[in-house]
Write a structure and sequence with these properties.
The protein has 220 residues and is an alpha+beta fold. The protein has six helices and five strands, in the order αββββααβααα. A hairpin with a 4-residue loop joins strand 3 and strand 4. This is Claudin.
């Protein structure tokens, strides 16, 4: 279970990074000009201009309404993902065998662990949807002949982090749901061991014995 706790922390850090980074959309360098003095970056909360001397200037959006639909939806869904992952980590910690919550009631702990795994799967969707939506918007605009080169954007690093984080969220949720389905209560373990011992005692091993007729045969 230590692996799932580590994955949960990594997923939370990745989701926060995706939400905060301004590199959802970056300037697409199209044309013959090889020397570019600045790069425009657009995120969920601000847009930034990175100059060639590595100096960056950022400005928060004045209004949510000026954002395109994919970034507006991305704000809400990514904030929801962070909240879901925090609750998932809390439930996962409460569902561990070492947890004092519910004492030794393994059924309740399994239910809590399953709830945590389900939240991870929901956060997988709420993270993947805005990332894929923004990617689809960027690719569609890139091949739109009616848009000028200055209006076209490329996929930023935040989107790649989003895909990687989504995969980790899916893996963590599946591990937790698989784990809780295999854990048994002390009574179930006791009856399983008793049944196994009963089957071992009553198992009959058949050994091949020579026939009595064969013993009495006289070979000439």
């Amino acid at each position: 279970m230590a692996l799932t706790v580590l994955l949960g922390v990594i997923c939370l850090a990745g989701t926060i990074a995706i939400t905060a980074l301004p590199t959802w959309k970056v300037t697409a360098f199209i044309g013959a000009n090889l020397i570019v003095m600045e790069e425009l970056q657009e995120g969920l909360w601000m847009n930034c201009i990175r100059h060639a001397n590595f100096r960056m200037q950022c400005k928060a959006y004045d209004s949510v309404l000026i954002l395109p639909g994919d970034l507006q939806a991305g704000r809400g869904l990514m904030c929801l993902s962070i909240i879901l992952i925090i609750f998932a980590i809390i439930l996962m910690s409460c569902g561990l065998k070492q947890s004092s919550l519910c004492q030794d009631n393994m059924k309740k702990k399994n239910s809590i662990l399953a709830a945590g795994g389900s939240l991870y799967l929901v956060s997988f969707l709420t993270t993947l949807i805005p990332v894929c939506w923004a990617s689809h918007s960027i690719i569609t605009d890139f091949y739109n002949p009616t848009l000028g080169d200055s209006q076209k954007r490329e996929l930023g690093s935040a989107l790649y982090i989003g895909w990687a984080t989504s995969v980790l969220l899916l893996i963590t949720g599946v591990i937790l749901l698989t784990r809780c389905s295999k854990r048994k209560t002390p009574e179930e373990q006791y009856y399983a061991e008793e049944e196994r011992n009963f089957q071992d005692k009553n198992s009959i091993s058949f050994t091949k014995t020579p026939s009595s007729i064969h013993k009495n045969q006289v070979y000439v």
